[in-house]
Structures
1.
Amino acid sequence: MGKVFKFHNDLDTDQIIASQYLLLPTIDDMKSHAMESQDPTFAERVQPGDFVVGGSNFGCGSSREQAPSVLKALGVKAVIAKSFARIFYRNSINIGMPVIVCKELYDAVENGDDIELDLLAGTIQAGDKTFACTKLPEKMQEILNQGGLIASLNKEEA
Amino acid sequence: MGMTIAEKIIAAAAGVDSVKAGDIHTVELDRLMSNDGTTHLTIDMYNNKLKNPHIADVKKLVWIIDHNIPSDSPKTAASHKKMRDFAREHGIDFWEGKGVCHQIMMENYVRPGELIFGADSHTCAYGALGAFGTGVGCTDYLYAMVTGKSWLLVPETIRFNLTGKLREGVYARDLILTIIGKIGAAGASYMAMEFVGDGMKNLTMDDRISMCNLCVEAGAKTALMEVDDIALDYLHARGREPKHCFKSDEDAVFAAEYDIDLATIEPIVARPDFVDDVIPAKEALGVKIDEAFLGSCNNGRLSDLRVGADLIRGRKVHPLVRFLVVPASNEVYEAAIKEGIIQTFMEAGAIVMNANCSVCWGSCQGVIGAGETLISTGTRNFKGRAGHPDSKVYLASAATVTASAIKGEITTADKL
């Protein structure tokens, strides 16, 4: 069970982590600034196991991998959105953070609601409602199962 | 079934006869560009996360410090040093302070038919030379750096048939903003945008780079153009030859096709905070501005600087406006000096800066404060993109930006 943190359609990666923090030495140095422009209290309030819920075209804009990385570093369990911009989607899988397409969830939940994600079953439980998630393409599920692209590469090269 | 340009490039890179949209293929990459936005993290992963750290083919790598150059803080300097030291140690082609990464790539590396990963979303610019460029994050980059390969989902293609000619005072920048406004910020999501037609002969290389560069703002994976004499002249002038020159087959399948008469395009402004929120510039007249920016990988090339200089010659920057002029590369800068363009901007009171990403990415010189408004030829106008979250960015052509810098409010060149 985790809490919902909800963001608008076309939420771009500059909002997830602003340019001015990208050249800090590590992701841990950046994570306290996640979503700062949208909600300066986000990084303090979000707890491991919580969810970011987005509308359509979530993660558009810059290819900065720092965007999914700061969310993962804060313990976000998954980003669930109506649809994703492709670079954010690919980056998230590569770092081993689930990105879930679910068209119905957005309008059915509010900030602070508790939801449960069953990754294996591909369902989300929100109150008394259950929503089906879209399956990941096989190639991406494989990468995610191994914990990300680097783990996958290390296995290939073993 | 026929193939699109995107499909042909992927087929060649995958070593197969044909591919179709929706397939996933393992591809050999021709070139891997990375800049200071993420490379320090790539290096950390290379050093600390890999079982067997190595580089498949160092000749494919190009590393460019362009985003925060010269560095703006000791922490940036440390990230730059990490990148510089690694590049030297491994013999990676390395550029620093010579220009914005995509302009350096176009001037020095990109060849038609190549498949290029860039750790920057605007890598789609390379389609202006018929190359498949696409933006990736640093983990994808690292995988490709180590293996020389990656995997790609073959994109569908949206085709734009261009006819006619842009009217005087209307630019490629207005055209591509119009197209993005029409199809929306996710209108080409996961797709390639292909530009063809008689109208192409009226678009210069500078125009074409500007168009392809911005396609990611419609969600596109890449942008592509056919390689004609204009592209070949650009390539040959820089001593390069194509790898392959592809055209889409007549029976290739397109997800959508649009016909655009270039003569119908008018000056456009994208309003804060979304690139696809476009209106005719004449509907934005009178908005007070604090800063104007002429530069970036989108619109900082010689022809853009010429447009600005022609407008501002004999006039002055408005006393309440900072007008930043930032050539996209030193090649552009030196040509502008020779033509007297830099002198013109300085006499008018502009601040002429070194070739870098500048305020376009909001973490370099020129960032704006709370409550301030910028009009920009940069790539994006997202909330806080140019500095403080409570600042505003309007996007427009070099002409509209320069005219606005003179007037102190948004205006078009014909109103000066």
2.
Amino acid sequence: MAPQKKDKAVSLTRLKKGQVMRVHSLPVGVLKAQLIRLGLNEGAIVVCFERLPGGTIVLQKRRQLIAIGHALAKEILVVFQNGGE
Amino acid sequence: MMENRDQGKRPAHLEKHVHVKSLFPGDDTGQTKVVLVGNPNVGKSLLFNEMSGLYVDVSNYPGTTIQVSKGEFGTHAVYDTPGIYGVSSFSEEERVALDIILEADVVLNIVDGTHLERDLFLTQQLIDMGKRITVLLNFMDEVETQKIRIDVQKLAHFLGVAVIPITAVKGVGRETIEKMLRSATEGVQREELHSMLHTMLSKVGSQAEALLMLEGDKTVAEWHGVSPGNHLEEIYVERRNRVNYVLNQVLQDDHAESHVLHTIGRWAMTPLTGIPLLLAVLYATYVFVGKWVAVDLVGFTEIKIGQGLWEPWIRSAVASVIGESWLNEILVGEFGVFTMTVTYVLFLLLPLVGAFHLMLSMLEDSGYLPRLATMVDRSLAFLGLNGRAVIPIILGFGCITSATITTRLLTSEKEKTIATAILQFVIPCSAQMAVIAALLAGAGFAPVLLYIGVMLCVLVAAGTILNKTLKGESQPLLLDLPPLRLPRLANVLRKTSIRTYHFMKEASGWFFVGALAVSVAQLTGALQVLVNALKPLVVHWLQLPPEAATAFVMGVVRRDFGAAGLYHMSLTPLQIVVALITITLFVPCIASLIVMMKERGLKEGTVIWIGTFVGAFAVAGIVSHIVM
């Protein structure tokens, strides 16, 4: 896979299983509050635990697993860490 | 620290929210109110059960569908609350928890030692609310086996409250519980937030409400008749940063999870392994609920006890009292309130609903359902639903009535409406499926394909049309996946009995009303009028024999009655398909109809009801004219 530019924010839908990234920005409103509660604040480092057919993403942060639907994943921007590995 | 727990007189504005006291009449107001608060699946109920023992009051929270349990521990009143990730008014669960937490004298905050990052957010929020709390660090057994190191003393120091490690499944012990209650204190807040709270406190009654006002909580703002604040994001981000900072100081966890359940959890989400697993779970449910309970156990209770012992006894008993009269028919006739209804409620519905809730509680406690919801999330998008909706839909194959209740767990009204309509319209319940399978088995392979094909088309068409026409937004999936755990039998049984009891309590009365209506309709000849009115439609439009009309009308009383009525007619394979399509799509049974009316309101319920009626005849008629 082509290495991603380290500082470029892309939507969560772009990431693949096993990739590590930093949360860059979240959608505003209630969803943001809910994401922050679960530990997905801006700046959090997360791993893509699973990417399911159709684009539902499962993120892992420490032992926490969070499933994010495609529509929401589109609105979350992330920056790849370690050149996309 | 600020004074906020005025035990005596309450400010007038507080009268606007529901009082825990009014929930459980006869409460001793002098009792200290202890409230258990925590994220979902952290072991609240286990601790609650240990504290309260056998005598527990379960009450429906006014204006909601949520049940709240109250028990006693010594002189303390103990309340269990729904699992929440934070205190606010984002969902029904949160609103209920908020109400109870506001009245708490002591909050026991249970956290999952293996998920501190998530759980401590709520802890810090409770501290910011100025509540007296004790943090109970649960799952210490797992913390040890997974080699997670938590500096408990340091954590207590940072939070400013006592932190007590426990393993709720092994029992906590009276002494420790007393210690928890004794050591509850107010914790440490950020300096900045503290001064913000001070300013707000002059306008509202308590620090807890002041915090929620600052966080822009609509419910609390409404009580005070002011517009909510707009510091939500700022306070949340700061709180999250604070929690992360504390965790960096107290937590050492660099061992990845590798145990078996973790792997199964992963398998449950990916289609390649998740679909076979789902089929296995469905098959197990079918064998347990559909065969052992619905056929074997109910066969015994309904036929042997109900129709064999109870009904003859009550018939002769009633006859000896009132003799021969029209009242006989209503009380002990074919649809009598003492005959059919009692048999139906006690000897058919009770075992079925119990078995159903047992399976549901087990699946719920295991953590499987959120993974299933994740797997199917995208495929439900075209119906305007997210992955969560898979739970009511799957449950619908068991019993539409119970499944309709579980549509509560969906986030938006639009999703609840779509899920309810799909359940009532397309999904056949287990009782119906047994008869459908038997009828189709005799019809041959092509009719089976035709039936399934039509059903799938209707499901997709109905979902798409509702999704396009209904106003409102569907929420995207955002789901915390709890660790997969083996369910605890005691907890599962307790949950099952509480839910079954409440379901029966709510539904039973309506069955009597329904049976009474049918008896009266039969006595007055109204039932026959209805059947006659349907006949032309059945004969000309559906191209079925006129007797099918009776089967359809009976289908309203009980879905499987309708299908069973078709047994004795001589139908061609294609007629069987048309009749079954009608029966499946046709109006739901009385019980599910009533539950739907209660859940979705009279107006929406009626629209869905009429919609299924019209839809059933339209689809079946079109199929009939195409194939015959």
